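lol ok so funny story. i was supposed to be doing the assay writeup but got distracted and ended up predicting the structure for this chain instead. priorities right. anyway since i did it might as well share w the group, maybe its usefull for someone
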Amino acid sequence: MLDRNELRKRFERPRFERDLSAIRKPTDIPRNSWVDVWLPPFLRPFARLARLDRPIGTWLLLLPGWWAITLANFGAPDRNLMLLFVLGALVMRGAGCTFNDIVDRNIDGKVARTATRPLPAGEVSLKAAVIFLVLQLAAGLAVLLQLNTPAIIVGAASLLLVFSYPYMKRITYWPQAWLGLTFNWGALVGWAAMRDGLEWAAAPLYAAGFFWTLGYDTIYAHQDKEDDALVGVKSTALALGSKTRPFVALMYLLTIALIAYASVRVFMPGWPALVFLGAAAVHLVWQVATLDISDPANCLKRFQSNRDFGLLILASLLLQRV
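and the output, tada:
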C-alpha cells in the first residue's frame, strides 16, 4: 500500500493540466432530470443534496431489506412492509447523503466530480443543510416507528454506522467496508420485522450484502482516485490499484455463495429460483470481465448495473418456493 506522499507523486500533474482536467471531467449532478423539470428552483438544491435525482443509491440501500423480507417470510412478502422500506430507504439515503455532504463540504469543492454539489457550490447554506437533515431524520423515525419493537431497536442502531461513515475515508483505506456494514443494515431490520427478532439465518444474507457493497463501491471509487490522492482521501481503489479486478471477483464470488447458503438455510430453492440466481452470477461475471478501472464512465456504468443484480436476486428469492 502506498502512503499519501507516494500517491501524490503518482497522480500529481502540473496545475494547468489539473485545471483542464477538472473542466473536462463531468459533474456527478445530472442535468435536465425530473428535478429540473418538475421542482421549483428553491427546492432543486435540496433534492440534489438528498440525491433524489440519482436513485441508484436508494436501490442499493433498499434491496438488501427487500431480500430479507422475502426470504424471512413463509408466504408472499408483506406488501405494506415492502412499501415502508421504500419510504425508509428513500428518506435515510437522503439523510445519509446530506450528512456526508455536510462533513465533506470542504473536500468536495476540491474534487472535480463533486465540486458543483449544492454545499460547495454555495446553493445551500450549512444552516439550511442541517435543518434539512433534521427533517429527513424525523421522517425516517416516523417510518421506523411503524415497525415492531425488535426492528425499531435494530434500525436505530444503524445510526452509529451512518454518522461515522463520512469520517472513515480520512482514517482508513477501507471506507468501502464501513459502507458495506451500513448499506446492508436493512437486511437485519427486514429480518427482525418479519420474524419479530434476529436469527442466525440473517447473518449470511447480511454478509453477502457486505461483500457485494465492498465490490461495487470499490469500482465506484475508481472514478475519484486521482482527486482523492491529491486531497488526501483514502479508498480501496487507491489501496488496491491494479489488483482491483481479482479483488472484486472474490467479493462477488462470496456474495453469490452466501446468498445461496442463506437461501438453502431457509428452504431448498427450486429450479426457477436457481435460474435467476445463475443469471445474477453471470451479471457479476460480466461486471468483472468488462471492468476498465482507467475509464470513469465504464466504472460508473458497472456500478449502476448493480441495481439489476439486486433485482435478479430478489426474483430468485421470490421464486424460491416454486
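The chain has a mean pLDDT of 89. The radius of gyration is 20 Å.
back to the writeup now i swear
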